[in-house]
Amino acid sequence: MMDRTEAADRALAHAVEAELLWEPRLSSTGLVVVAHDGAVTLQGTVESLAERHAALTAAWRIRGVRALNDTIRIEIHRHHKRSDDEIAALAAHRFAGNLQIPQNAIRIAVRNGWITLTGQVGKGFQSQAAEHDLQGLPGIVGIRNEIVIKTKLPLSDLGDSIGAAIARSRLYDPDAIQVSAQGSVVVLKGRAASPHDRQIALDTAWAIPGITGIEDDIVLG
Question: Within 10 A of 194 (CB to CB), how many other CB atoms are there?
Answer without folding.
Answer: 14
